[in-house]
Amino acid sequence: MKNSLLLFFFLAVFSFTSCSDDEDQIPSGSLNVEATINGADWKASGNSRVTSLAGVTVFAIGAGATDRSNIAITLDREATGTYDLEGRALYTDAAQTVNSATSGTVTITKLEGNKVSGTFSFRASPLVGTGPEVVIANGKFTDINIMK
């Protein structure tokens, strides 16, 4: 199951970051995800997707910034509430180092039509090798589109 969850993470990150160069520009006013990463402000454009695979629901929320850094959160249900992010969130920095959440939470505060809003914070360590812990705090996403 852990390998399946890791596969979902990589698919989520891939689906939110694999854009052509023409799509890399974030339209003005669409920076609907923000957080503080290691004390620095971070803003990005987000999307989410709900899909079922082999009877398992996957609700992926992702956001990418112009420097190619991104955050991906994967849940096993589409519902409001607070969820543990250990092993369910990734932060990829501009150098493309992938960090996996070791602790933290996401709170889905609004699911309305095809939009989702909420807050998040987590601590993450490199998925491969060693390196410094990354602290993501004060995260929020507002009216992110849900693709189904």
Q: Keyphrases for this structure?
A:
nine-stranded mixed β-sheet; 148 residues; disordered N terminus; 1 helix; mainly beta; single chain; 11% helix
**Category from helices, strands and their pairing:** mainly beta
Tally of contiguous helical segments: 1
Euclidean distance between termini CA atoms: 23 Å
SS strand fraction: over 45%
Task: Please compute the radius of gyration using only Cα atoms.
Answer: 14 Å
- What percent of the residues sit in helical stretches (DSSP H or I)? 10-25%
Rounded average pLDDT? 85
Shape: globular
Question: What would you say this structure looks like, in words?
Answer:
The protein is mostly beta strands. The protein has one domain. The protein has one helix and nine strands. It has one helix at about 1-15, and strands at about 35, 40-55, 55-65, 70-75, 80-85, 90, 100-110, 115-125, 135-145. Strands 1, 2, 3, 4, 5, 6, 7, 8 and 9 form a nine-stranded mixed beta sheet that branches. Residues about 1-30 have low confidence and may be disordered.
How does the SSE layout of this entry go?
Layout: H1 2-17, E1 33-37, E2 40-53, E3 56-64, E4 70-75, E5 81-84, E6 89-92, E7 98-112, E8 115-126, E9 134-147
Parallel strand pairs: 2-9
Antiparallel strand pairs: 1-2, 1-9, 2-3, 3-4, 4-6, 5-7, 6-7, 7-8, 8-9
